Amino acid sequence: MAAPLDIDQLKTFIAIIDSGSFTRAADEVNKTQSAVSMQMRRLEERINRNLFRKDGRINRLTADGERLLAYARRLVRLNNETLAAFDEEALAGTIRLGTPDDYADRYMPDIIARFAKTNPNVELSITCEPSRDLVDKLSRNELDIALVTHNPKVRHALLLRSEPLFWVTSMAHSVHSDTPVPLAVGRQSCDWRQLGCAALDSVGRDYSVLFTSRSSTVVASAVLSGLAVSLLPESALRPGMRILTPNEGFPDLPPAEIGMIRRQGVPTVLMDALTDHIAASLDNLAPAGADDASDGHLPNRTGLSRAPNGLTFPSW
């Protein structure tokens, strides 16, 4: 009878795919990079297939690696669910989480997926609203936790993440030269919209709000289509975008900061588990334009897509 697959090896394999590199996976599974490499060699020997292939300095999944990934996710998920079903101390309950739409697009899918894997008995109820509305919902006990734009002048929150905020335009268009310059921004209550308008006012730059949406996808589409200029944090930059400078009439902006507010009265253990998970996840995110990002496939500040040394997968 064939020996069973090693769940720990499968977890490491999934971590490599999800994180984008052997190095980051090693941090996630608390192993050295050499131990991760050894696990993958043993997994390849166990199924008698190559899971990765070299493409220059980049490792890519083979067709067999793609096949194994689907099985690995199912096996690990079933393993976690089985253990949780017999764990009398497993977390259970419901947490109502609020987040602005742009944070939900960029950060929440990965955060929610990882939390759900380890806490299958916890139900997350997600609300997407601007920061100001989320704070109001907290005060009415309609939310338990809110991720908000950190603004100590307006609200008190625990600072979780800070990254550069940039003016961006399309590389293929010159809409940023128009007078007045058209903007694609959030609704009037959006902190970044107010910040951007105030910055342009401070240098006497004429502008008009052409697109208003709380969806970061809509805003990014307006920029890439050459219809408007917007302001986005570094992690939201996409290939085809170009950062605008003060020399072009777009003043420097303060950093984009994410804060967290917790409602009093929620079970401490459950609240701590989610807030600690969110804080750790945001803290571990690599900035999109980091020069030392050695693992992943990230847009750089020229708007071109670069593939630094590390692991990338064509299916992403």
Task: Describe the protein's architecture and organization.
- This protein is an alpha/beta fold and 316 residues long.
- The protein folds into three domains: 7-86, Winged helix-like DNA-binding domain superfamily/Winged helix DNA-binding domain (Arc Repressor Mutant, subunit A), CATH 1.10.10; 93-162 and 257-283, Periplasmic binding protein-like II (D-Maltodextrin-Binding Protein, domain 2, 3-Layer(aba) Sandwich); 165-254, 3-Layer(aba) Sandwich (D-Maltodextrin-Binding Protein, domain 2).
- Helix content is 38%, strand content 22%.
- The protein is built from ten helices and 14 strands.
- The strands form five sheets. Strands 4-3-5-12-6 form a five-stranded mixed β-sheet, sandwiched between helices. A three-stranded antiparallel β-sheet has the order 10-7-11.
- Strand 8 (181-185), helix 8 (191-202) and strand 9 form a beta-alpha-beta unit.
- Helix 1 crosses helix 2 (22-28), helix 1 (7-19) crosses helix 4 (63-85) and helix 2 (22-28) crosses helix 3.
- It is flat, with a radius of gyration of 22 Å.
- The two termini are 36 Å apart.
- The relative contact order is 0.14.
- The model is unreliable at 286-316 (pLDDT under 50).
